Amino acid sequence: MPFAQAAYAEPRLRCLFPWTGMGELHFSRCTEWPWGWDIPYIEPAPGGAYRVAGPSRSETVGPAATAEDAVAMVVERLPPGADVVFVGRWDELVAREARNSRPEAGQ
Q1: Using the 8-state DSSP alphabet, how is residue 70 labeled?
Q2: What is the rounded CA–CA span in Å between residue 39 and residue 56?
Q3: Which of 4, 24, 59, 88 has a Cα-to-Cα distance from 71 of 20 to 30 A?
């Protein structure tokens, strides 16, 4: 899968948890199922091209002629906090981020 190799070559994606399904390459900010769906994913398209979609199945980012173009489209749309993977489930990550975003009492 050339798009998997291109994704591995990109340090900002290499630090995430990759997972595949139905020929698609997804990236998650957490390591355990259920994984997060806040990062676009890549899927093969007819003629050797690619399609970048997501984060949800109803969203389309656009076509990409090469695997490298598809990877760049995903990287451009990485959410805040996508620089390190969280060891745990998506709900645990969301709860941790919510706790960390609250101002401390008295501030």
Answers
A1: H
A2: 8
A3: 88
